[in-house]
Specification:
single chain; 413 residues; alpha/beta; D-Maltodextrin-Binding Protein, domain 2; 2 domains; 5-stranded mixed β-sheet; 14% strand; globular; binds beta-D-galactopyranose
Length: 413
Amino acid sequence: MNRISTTVSAVALMISGAAFAEPQAEVLHWWTSGGEAKSVAVLQQEFADNGGTWTDMPVAGGGGDAAMQALRARVLAGNAPTAVQLKGPAIQEWYEEGVLADISSVAEAQGWADVLPASIAGHMKCEGTWCAAPVNVHRVDWIWANADVLESNGIAMPTSWDEFNAAAEKLQAAGIIPLAHGGQAWQDATVFEAVALGILGSDGYRKAFVDLDQATLTSPEMVAVFDQMRTMRGFVDPNFPGRDWNLATAMVMNGEAAFQIMGDWAKGEFLAAGKAPGEDFLCASTPGEGFLYNVDSFAMFAVDGGDKQAGQALLAELIVGKNFQKVFNLNKGSIPARTDVALDEFDSCAILSSDEMAASNEGGSLLPSYAHGMALRGAQSGAITDVVTQHFNSDMSSEDAVNALWAAVANSL
Ligand code: GAL
């Protein structure tokens, strides 16, 4: 059978399957915090409203490391879930293993190419076919703050790392934890990449974490990034090891801590707790230019059975649907991936995100988050994060960290 007739019969099978089958999906995801669970419930509800039966497979653990381990075990056992929260180059890595389903028939029927920015669509494609459906755009380089704590201590949102350090020292002297942080490798990496963007600038960030350029990774500026990480280590409380990110967000909410550096899924937590932006909490981009994006998406795994395939087609269609993109993102803290969703119901942090995403796209500083798996393949991002977390949790010098960073990257190539 030639390639064209194979494709046609696959589409015909999907359509005939969808006509007779009852859509089913087992969905693997890591959305288990308050805001995340509220958000994924929107998809669950829409799926049920359209006749689907959802089997939930949540794997707790921010950033998804545990979920990705669970996925590997399931695929190795020959029993892949129907739909999986998967993003960035990991999508193409799984495609190369030959285990992803082609969702091009849905994408083409729904005109995804017309409503998704090219930069996002590119992440959803595998050798020209559509292999994932985007949910949102999260921004990573944010600072969140407790509004009352800042006001009562006479502190404005910092616009440089020096201002951040000065504010943190003042707060510490007043008995407030300056930085709410959870000591998990992915959270260390989240703070690190925001600091790196601020200190290296967008070109330096790209050279370091997209191009893996040796000169940038070993530069004096990279030493300065680790110096700032060392300074920030002094601003976290002694109980930080192992703390979940949403518990760190709660510390900012209840005024125990002043700031958190975290992607805008933190806003989902504030909102789920009934807090209002601009009143209870403040949002600002971390010091420096640029925008680090993190696009959540779902990939469908190749599975047998008309019911499951119908479930995959329905899920893909709903995920990129206009209503879902609005309601889900109002809860999640992110902004829609589609460009044609009106933002009038979104809050000021989301509007800021959308405006700065457009501006950074124009200015060439819209960049993929390395810490959230958008910039590099797993081996390379893992090598960088190992060094970042080792440095943060020891007394390693910044110079030693930079040397270890290049050695780890070179070894992973
Ligand atoms: C990110 C993911 C977000 C958020 C966060 C914490 O990697 O893209 O949707 O949920 O992890 O779990």
